[in-house]
Amino acid sequence: MSLSQLARALADGTRSARSTVQATLASCERANPRLAAFQALAATDALACAERLDAALAAGAEPGPLAGVPFATKANLCIAERETNCGSALLAGYRPPYTATAVERLVAAGAIPIGTTNMDEFGMGSSGENTCYGIARNPWDLGRTPGGSSSGSAVSVAAGLVPFALGSDTGGSVRQPAALSGVFGLKPSYGAVSRYGLVAFASSLDVVGVLAAEATDLATLLAVLAGPDPLDATTVRIEGPGNEADRELDGLVVGVARETFGPGLDPRVEARTNEALAALERAGCVLREVSLPLAGQAVPIYYVIATGEASSNLARYDGVRYGRRVQGDDPSLDAMFEATRAAGFGDEVKRRILLGTYVLSAGYAQHWYTKALRARRRLVHEFDAAFREVDVLLGPTTPTPAFHLGERVDDPLAMYACDHLTVPASLAGLPAVSAPVGTVDDPAGGATLPVGLQWVGPRGSDARLCALVAAADRLGAPFTSALAPEVSA
Amino acid sequence: MERDQPLDPRLVRRIAGLARLKLEASELERLTPHLARILAALRAIEALDVDDEEPVRRVAGPALELRADEPRASLATARLLANAPDRLDDFFRVPKTIGGAE
């Protein structure tokens, strides 16, 4: 059942929150051994939350817009007293004393968190494989990645277990798994949604985002989540959805950057993207080619900035206040720091901390980090210039469909290349949505895999962008999403 | 460190020291070639002619709102200490930092 159907069924009394949560928990328990979407289900808390909601509604309370809707949360969003380990051994058993604002707002709107999902450690990865907990599997083909780092959140939605899930997106961690798993993924403008209670990776890039089964759900969720938060000084107010004409495809000027059709783009993904663009043109959109030269260099710019900020943010994991502590043979404080971090972090996190330390170290920072920040400014200008000509920018979300698990784990550069279409919007702080645009068949036979189309809008235009994605969805094929066959069969 | 110094195991060990990461010999052997290849790819930014641009310190947007400077309740000490790996009364306990190990 979709988010709106669920909320309506609860409001008109045809279904209780308790029965919804019970059914959801049962299907999650059945599916999880195969999919590894969830790290943990919070059955007791979820049922208690549902019972409170049922009692409040019975007593005449007004149902919120998400009343009785179960959802999943990525394991880097704090929920008070529930394990929030960020997919890291270092934070095994960490139970934060507070709840993330994003989660609080959803709960206040009536939604019920039912469990935490698997993810790449601290959000660092594009396949969900960088974790010592479970490696989530793509329900379209269990041998493939669902995309990362919000891997389990994408799977929980793609498999039809929950209508939506929370994720986080630093360089594409909501959009990529949305594309590879065949669901909708919204990365809001930087600052649109509070990050209070989101464990930091790269602070100038991190945003809280959502993965959803239906296009219309994005606007509903954005309306609940967005808005200034006194607990996060980086939050800003974003624009409303605009008037009706702003939300129509007829007359919409769509920019297509040639940099997003460069080498490395799978011809099947390119074909689906072109079909979607042609369908939009038939619906009255005006296609215009634009140029974003720095977008072609966004991966190195992004990795210098993101690793620098990560090395600084992750300095807090020192075994003193929370998380795991390892002492080793040397009884000194420094040895404790080093042994704790050596034992707690996985390979990818260590690589990024080392790179980040290098690009920020004395004598190097100007050459690397500051230079990357200057290039970032140029990219922002390029986007600003493009949005003077066009309303939205469209292109593929990922260069290829879902790849096999294990295929890129020993090749960090191949893994980073997955990000090249999503990091430009992250660097410029722009809202972006990945929406399903049909499937492709694997030439080796067997798998049918989803493809995602990325919509990027000007800063603050999140609500309009969601409305446009929903308008495209109403056109039908190729803008059709379907639950993964493995589960819906 | 010299900027053009090649990223060899010695330099990686030095960076690891700055990052407070203890690396086993086997890890150093595994991570060094990865890091050298990644860094070589990141060098693409050297060719960008962007010196006339101001570094981005914050992605542009409306001025940030500051909250009122008013005292408010914070989390209880016991809750904040609940995740401590080691504690003594209301304090986090760490290995001795002065006087050296005997």
Low-confidence stretches of chain A: none
Question: What is the count of structural domains of chain A?
Answer: 1
Q: Treating each run of at least 4 consecutive H or I residues as one helix, how many helices of chain B? A: 3
Instruction: Calculate the terminal CA-CA distance of chain B, rounded to whole Å.
Output: 33 Å
Number of helices of chain A: 16
General shape of chain B: flat
Write down the overall geometry of chain A. Answer: globular
Order of strands, main sheet of chain B, comes to 1-2
Structural class category of chain B = mainly alpha
The total strand number of chain A stands at 11
SS-based structural class of chain A?
A: alpha/beta
Q: Would you tell me the overall average pLDDT of chain B? A: 88
Remind me, CATH topology of chain A? Amidase signature (AS) enzymes
Radius of gyration of chain B: 23 Å
The low-pLDDT segments of chain B are none
Estimated share of beta-strand residues of chain A: 5-15%
Question: What can you tell me about this protein's structure?
Answer:
By secondary structure, chain A is of the alpha/beta class. Chain A has a single domain (1-489), classed as Amidase signature (AS) enzymes (Alpha-Beta Complex). Chain A is built from 16 helices and eleven strands. An eleven-stranded mixed β-sheet of chain A has the order 1-3-2-4-6-5-10-11-9-7-8, sandwiched between helices. In chain A, helix 7 runs antiparallel to helix 15 (462-473). Chain A starts with a helix and ends with a helix. Chain B has 102 residues and is mainly α. Chain B has a domain at 9-47. Chain B has a two-stranded antiparallel sheet with strand order 1-2. In chain B, a hairpin with a 2-residue loop joins strand 1 and strand 2 (91-92). The longest helix of chain B is centred in the first third of the chain and has 18 residues, at 25-42. The radius of gyration of chain B is 23 Å and the shape is flat. Chain B starts with 8 loop residues before the first helix and ends in a 10-residue tail after the last strand. The model of chain B has no long low-confidence stretch (mean pLDDT 88). At the A-B interface, helix 9, helix 10, helix 11, helix 12 and helix 13 of A face helix 1 and helix 2 of B.
